[in-house]
C-alpha cells in the first residue's frame, strides 16, 4: 500500500508540472487582426491601386470576384490594381490563428462617358459628393492650398507658398511681387470657387465643395469650360452660355495640356509672360523646333503628366523659384520610358567627352540653346517678360486694368548656374539681400556650387528683373489691387507699407530685383540643335565657365610643371582630352574641384 501511494504521489506531481509546461506552449492572444484598405471603395474615373495593411503580423487573403475568401484564396503580397468595377473581399489570419471577419469594398471604375453620361449640373459640390477621397487629397495639395512643405528651401519657415500671409511664409517674386490685397484677380487661377483656402487636416463637406474640379478635368476640346466671378458674392460661377450639363457629362478625364496651360501659360499676367519656356502654343503647336516633346504631328505629343506624375493629386516637379514642394518624386529625363540609356558617364553619348557631362550637366543645359522662341504655326508671339517697371503704368484693354510696363523678348540665351535641388528665396517681411554679382536685390536663387556632392548639376535659367520699392531694408509688398485699379505706383507702395505694419509715410526708394527661373521646356530635336562644345568651352559668350569655378587653380606655369615642363597650350580640347580622356587625371590637378571618386580619376603626378 505504501508503495502504491508513493507511485500515485509521483504521478500527481508529474501531472502538476506538466500542465504549466503544456499551457506555456499555447498563446493567450485571442484578438483578431484588423485589415484596412486604402483607398476605401467608391467611384473612380480610372484604374485604382488598393493597398491592404494589417495592424499586426498576419496573412491576408482576398478575392475580387465577389466570392467569400478562405485560407485557400490568393494571399495578398503587393498592392492590387483594379481597372474595372469589382468587389474586393478580404480578411487576415494572425500568427496565433485568430481570424478576422471578412470585409468588403466595392470599386466602381468607369470612363467619364459611362459614369457621367446622365449627370445634370447642380453646382460644384456634385464632384466632391461622389469623389470624396480625391477631393480630400486635392484640398491638401499645393495646387489648392498655394503653399506646402518648404523642405527644399534653405530660407524661411517650414511651410511656404504664394498665398499672402503675415507669418513670413508668403513668397515674393519679380512679377506681381506678392498677392496681398489682390486675391480676386490672382485667385482666378486658383482651383477653387473663389474663397481663400483654409488649411485643415479634415476639411468639411462645404470646404471640399469649394474645389473647382472642372478647371483640370473638364474636356477642353469637346466641352470647354470657363468661369466668371460674381461681382456680388465674389465667387466663381460658370460663364454665360455654357451647357453645363454637357460639361459635367464630358468631364472626368485626366488633364490635357490645354487644361494645365490655361493657368500655367498665362501666369504673370499673360501668355508666355512668366516662365519663358511655356506658352499657350505648347498645347497646340506641331512645330518640333519649338518643343519636340509636346509638339503634335511628328513630335512626341507628351501630356504634362507624362513627366509631372501625380500621386493622390500631388504633382512631381518644382521650379527653383517656387517655394513649396508638392511631391518628393523627382522628374527625370532618364526613365525606363524616356532616354533610359543616357545615364552612363562613359557610354551615354557617342564620345567619352560628351558622356562625362551627364554627371554634372543637366540634359537641358545642352539641349536648350535658346528659350522664348516663337512657334512657327501660331499667330501670337511667345516672347517672355524680361523686366517689369512698376513706376510706369499702362492700360491693358484685354485685362481691363493698369499694368506695370513690361519689357519682352524672344530667342534668349539662358543663364547657367549649379543647382543641388534646394533654393534660396526672399519672402514677405524678410530683409532684402543685395547680390554684388548682379547689382540687384535677389528674390530667388538655385543653391549649388561646383564642389557640391554628386547630384548637383549645371542648369539653364531664365533671368528676370523688376523695379520694386525698398523701405526699412525690406522689399515692399506693393498693393497690386491699388495699382491695377489706378496705375498709381506711389499709392500702391504706401498701401503695401501699411500691410507690412509700417506708416504709409515711411520713406522708400525704387530698386532693381532679380531672380533665376529653371528652364525645362521648348527642347528642339537633338540633331542639328544641341550645343557644340565650342558654344561653352573656350568662350564666355554663352556661359562664363571660369566664373562658375572652372578656372585654373594657378597660372599655367605653376599648374603644368607639377607633371612636366612648360609646353605650348594647344587649346582646351587638346589639353582636356589628353589629360582626362586619355590619362584619366583628376580635375583637382589643375582646378579647385575634384571628380576623382565619381569618375574614377587619378590624383597625383603623372
TrEMBL record:
Keyword Signal recorded: yes
Signal peptide: 1-24
SUPFAM superfamilies membership: Multiheme cytochromes
Domain Cytochrome c: 93-219
Keywords: Heme, Iron, Metal-binding, Signal
Domain of life: Bacteria
Matches recorded under PROSITE patterns: CYTC
Protein name: Chitobiase/beta-hexosaminidase C-terminal domain-containing protein
Amino acid at each position: 500500500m505504501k508503495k502504491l501511494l508513493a507511485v500515485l504521489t509521483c504521478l500527481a506531481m508529474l501531472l502538476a508540472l506538466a500542465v504549466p509546461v503544456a499551457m506555456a506552449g499555447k498563446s493567450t492572444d485571442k484578438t483578431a487582426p484588423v485589415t484596412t484598405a486604402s483607398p476605401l471603395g467608391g467611384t473612380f474615373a480610372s484604374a485604382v491601386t488598393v493597398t491592404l495593411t494589417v495592424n499586426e503580423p498576419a496573412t491576408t487573403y482576398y478575392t475580387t470576384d465577389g466570392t467569400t475568401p478562405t485560407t485557400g484564396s490568393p494571399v495578398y503580397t503587393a498592392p492590387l490594381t483594379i481597372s474595372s468595377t469589382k468587389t474586393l473581399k478580404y480578411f487576415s489570419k494572425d500568427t496565433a490563428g485568430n481570424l478576422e471577419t471578412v470585409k468588403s469594398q466595392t470599386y466602381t471604375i468607369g470612363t467619364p462617358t459611362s459614369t457621367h453620361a446622365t449627370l445634370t449640373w447642380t453646382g460644384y459640390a456634385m464632384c466632391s459628393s461622389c469623389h470624396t477621397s480625391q477631393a480630400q487629397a486635392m484640398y491638401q495639395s499645393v495646387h489648392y492650398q498655394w503653399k506646402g512643405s518648404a523642405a527644399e528651401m534653405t530660407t524661411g519657415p517650414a511651410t511656404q507658398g504664394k498665398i499672402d500671409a503675415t507669418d513670413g511664409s508668403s513668397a515674393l517674386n519679380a512679377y506681381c511681387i506678392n498677392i496681398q490685397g489682390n486675391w480676386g484677380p490672382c485667385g482666378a487661377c486658383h482651383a477653387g470657387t473663389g474663397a481663400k483656402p483654409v488649411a485643415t487636416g479634415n476639411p468639411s463637406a462645404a470646404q471640399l465643395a469649394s474645389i473647382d474640379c472642372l478647371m483640370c478635368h473638364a474636356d477642353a476640346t469637346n466641352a470647354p469650360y470657363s468661369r466668371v466671378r460674381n461681382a456680388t458674392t465674389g465667387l466663381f460661377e460658370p460663364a454665360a452660355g455654357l451647357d453645363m450639363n454637357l460639361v459635367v457629362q464630358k468631364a472626368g478625364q485626366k488633364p490635357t495640356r490645354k487644361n494645365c496651360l490655361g493657368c500655367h501659360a498665362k501666369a504673370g499676367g499673360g501668355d508666355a509672360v512668366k516662365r519663358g519656356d511655356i506658352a499657350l502654343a505648347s498645347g497646340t503647336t506641331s512645330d518640333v523646333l519649338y518643343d519636340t516633346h509636346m509638339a503634335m504631328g511628328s513630335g512626341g505629343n507628351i501630356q504634362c503628366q507624362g513627366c509631372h506624375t501625380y500621386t493622390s493629386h500631388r504633382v512631381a516637379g518644382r521650379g527653383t523659384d517656387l517655394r513649396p514642394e508638392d511631391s518628393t518624386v523627382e522628374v527625370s529625363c532618364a526613365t525606363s520610358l524616356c532616354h533610359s540609356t543616357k545615364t552612363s558617364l562613359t557610354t551615354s553619348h557617342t564620345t567619352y567627352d560628351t558622356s562625362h557631362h551627364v554627371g554634372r550637366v543637366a540634359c537641358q543645359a545642352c539641349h536648350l540653346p535658346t528659350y522664348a522662341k516663337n512657334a512657327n504655326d501660331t499667330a501670337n508671339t511667345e516672347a517672355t517678360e524680361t523686366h517689369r517697371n512698376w513706376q510706369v503704368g499702362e492700360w491693358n484693354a484685354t485685362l481691363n486694368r493698369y499694368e506695370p510696363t513690361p519689357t519682352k523678348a524672344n530667342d534668349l540665351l539662358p543663364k547657367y548656374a549649379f543647382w543641388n535641388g534646394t533654393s534660396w528665396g526672399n519672402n514677405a517681411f524678410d530683409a532684402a539681400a543685395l547680390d554684388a554679382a548682379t547689382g540687384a536685390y535677389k528674390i530667388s536663387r538655385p543653391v549649388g556650387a561646383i564642389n557640391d556632392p554628386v547630384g548637383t548639376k549645371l542648369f539653364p535659367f531664365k533671368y528676370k528683373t523688376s523695379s520694386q520699392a525698398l523701405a526699412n531694408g525690406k522689399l515692399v509688398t506693393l498693393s497690386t489691387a491699388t495699382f491695377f485699379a489706378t496705375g498709381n505706383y506711389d499709392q500702391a507702395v504706401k498701401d503695401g507699407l501699411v500691410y507690412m505694419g509700417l506708416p504709409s509715410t515711411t520713406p522708400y526708394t525704387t530698386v532693381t530685383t532679380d531672380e533665376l527661373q529653371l528652364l525645362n521646356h521648348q527642347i528642339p530635336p537633338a540633331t542639328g540643335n544641341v550645343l557644340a562644345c565650342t558654344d561653352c568651352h573656350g568662350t564666355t559668350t554663352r556661359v562664363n565657365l571660369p566664373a562658375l569655378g572652372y578656372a585654373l587653380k594657378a597660372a599655367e606655369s605653376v599648374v603644368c610643371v607639377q607633371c612636366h615642363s612648360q609646353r605650348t597650350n594647344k587649346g582646351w580640347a587638346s589639353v582636356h582630352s589628353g589629360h582626362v580622356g586619355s590619362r584619366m587625371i583628376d580635375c583637382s590637378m589643375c582646378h579647385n574641384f575634384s571628380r576623382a571618386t565619381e569618375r574614377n580619376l587619378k590624383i597625383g603626378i603623372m
